[in-house]
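Notes, Module 5: Reading structure tokens.

Key idea: the token line is not a picture. It is a compressed description, and you learn to read it the same way you learned to read a sequence, by spotting repeated patterns. We will look at two proteins. The first is printed below with its tokens.
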Amino acid sequence: MQLQAAQSGDGETGAVSNGSWRVECGSVAGAAGYHIGGWRAASSYSLATGILSRQQRGMESTPESTAPKPAFLGKDTPLPASPEEAMLDYVPNPRKGALYLVRFAAPEFTSLCPVTNQPDFAHLVIDYAPGDTIVESKSLKLFLGSFRNHNGFHEDVTVGIGQRLAKEMSPRWLRIGGYWYPRGGIPIDVFWQTGAPPEGLWVPDQGVASYRGRG
């Protein structure tokens, strides 16, 4: 839906419309114009309001028409049969230029032992600082779920996930922690990162304690 609003310059009348209906609104000091859908707005207010325009606050972003739509979000998508078949979807970074961290946690990740074919379970934590794009979360969920019938050692699976994301997404920084539940009495934790994190990036602890059994 595309929602548009216009406020007259005299601050007395205004209207909101999506093309099929129109709502008149009352007096507002100043002038305003909105386009909600691509999250683009330009507005101005009298000094009495004490509110800066969106342009002054740096809140303008790419119009909806120029942003690619997610490939899987909102669609009935079957689980890929393998990681090789799975496609990761990337969308433009909505805060390009800002240094921030995104975290995904998958506490019930599962794959298969390449020798015994028995299931392995892990708690994965993926942290990354976006560059030009971010990974769409549903595509990541499908990608991780595709390992359910994949045979691989803990080290290969953990590092492989991190390397694929880093190669395709080209983030400013990425790390992955694979906290595997014990089989044979020994838990294995696997850690990989692209390099040192950028200066000034807030990187919280991944918050997964070492496995102790009954302690």
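Here is the second protein, with the sequence above and the tokens below, as before.
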Amino acid sequence: VTVIREIVQLKKQLANICASRVGAGSGQDGNLDEFSVLQKAVDAAGGKDGLQKVTPRCNAQMALAIRHAIFVGWADRVARRITVSEMVREESGTTTMRRKRRYKTLLSSQVCSVRSPVSRNRPEWVTYTTLQEGRTGNINMECVTEVHPSWLTDFHLDKL
């Protein structure tokens, strides 16, 4: 029950942040592309009231709007799932990783793993909040959210 209360509080905080950014104007303090994407996400969710509405279960449209809003806030922290060809070392032909939950960050090209329910679906693109080094030296992504590939084109991250 405590976790559910925390989720509801975080949802309200995110709704307030998104709605205040959209309500503040036409993105004078930031990137116009970011503003327009954020405005679309907030409008799709029904504005501030729609984002704050407590529902017994989050429907698909609301979940998509929340994921989109999270991506807008963390657009510089995107990772792409590593393909099989990238897992094989060219010089020796051996596999560098045994797990299928490996991603490579776009900006730093850091190879990291995911310990999250999101990894069960193995999305091609994810956004994360932090990278944390584990006891064994592996780098893990924290607070992972699936990203739609079409959102990347809004920020021109598809060229990275």
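Summary for the second protein:
- The chain is about 45% helix and 15% strand.
- The first helix runs from residue 2 to 23.
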